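TA notes. Do not distribute before section.
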Amino acid sequence: MMHVRSARGIAEAGIAYGMYASRYDDLLRENRINIYMRRETTCTLLRTFAPGERVLELGCGTGDEALALARHGCEVVGLDPAPEMVRIAQGKADATGLSARARFHVGPSREAATVLAAPSATRFEGAYSHFALSYEPDLRPVREAVASLVVPGGHLLVASMNRYCAAEWLVAVALLSPHLAGRRLRDGTTHKVGDVDTRIYPRSASELARGFAPDFILEDVRALPALLPPHYANRALRRWPALLDIAMRVDPPVSRRRPFRTLGDHVLCGFRRTD
């Protein structure tokens, strides 16, 4: 029953993002917190994966991170459950002359091996996912799929909604909202995509480590972001742009320090494929 419910929830999220696909890039461009997070994840990807490597993206959205890696010289295969997202991503690749190094397919992360129909000789030097795995209530099928595709020693980067967010707790105190303070501590909470409420599953770094063991070993943890509040606070922070500038400059070094690295809105975990 869990797998049936899981598939249904992921499919519903794919439908929600498909409905929102035409506005998705505009949302990222107008939200400074989202812009900061995308910049940090992209920089991490470019440091992690070398030109010439084959990389798998789980939940590619409209393809911007995959195309950044393609320009970097990587060969990227993206997967997303929303057909309209995939259509837009492939259109960007075609329009920018990157379709030889960036290809996109429709399908959920847990079915990556099946969707790609990859023979054993077709392997990836690494994989990554930005937020998409927050929709997975059970990481086991995702781990098994990715482990079958990534070579031993390969990198896996996962950015996921964190269970413990200090900035959100402070916002909840300021708003006298106990519901907001405790929403991530439950087994699943809601995330609005356009006008649709979708179900997501926040996880701490230790929960992600257990979810990907024993096929992947956790090597690095950072908050994303550490000091900035969640993206939904962007509109309120427009009144203090200078404060936001300072926070964005200070955030990168702080995001790797204890205890801040485990208390951000998202957590960015770096894994290594075991032998």
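Switch to the second chain here.
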Amino acid sequence: MPHNWQRICCPVDFSACSRAALDQAVSLAFHTGAEIFLLHAMEPPVDTLVTASGTWTPGVLSQLEQDLTDELARWQQAALEAGADHVASEVIVSAHTLGAIVHYAIEHRCDAFVLGSHGAGNSTQVLGSVAAEVVRKAAVPVVVVNPPANLPG
């Protein structure tokens, strides 16, 4: 058991695999006393921000960010109700989501990652692209959680 972890970064994409990762992060936090930093990083959906005439749709990105923040707050509350003592949450919009995730963890002095092996996309690979890149780029331990047994892949 990693007794020295104080800050766990748990990036989620709202998939079932991410929920399993959050459950694992809560369990680790319960046993170590660590704080959980719950994070959702997304690329700006340019195709949904521009109308057919090529003009920007005002407020779409800010509404999307608010919807994601609201959903992340529900996940944060679930983690607190499951026994985590401290859970911070943040939505980040970045053209480089992997870089944003790693930078966030460094900025918040996280000493571990807990994330799902696969995101919302269906994959037959051993690891999803974000999980694989975090494993490669992280300077701290990474716990990769498999999808629940009742899910494919």
